[in-house]
Amino acid sequence: MRNPLRILGVAALALGIAACTKLTVENYDQIKVGMRYDEVKRLLGEPTKCSDLMAVRSCTWGDETRHVQVNFIADQVVLFSSANLR
Question: Is 32 helix (H, G, I), strand (E, B) or coil?
């Protein structure tokens, strides 16, 4: 039989890790046009993916259902959006 305390501990750890995400409405609300890539990275953590097209760098934090997308030109935010943060 499995140890109920061990199962509870694993569940608590998983919940704690999920609660530590930087992908929050509060952090999204701090993003401003003109912010540098490094500032956004400090705020949201490492991006899930980035792509470069011409002079625009587009980075996404999160997944297809819940994410923040930020576009940078010359290392500065020019456009940003989010989906399902609330």
Answer: coil
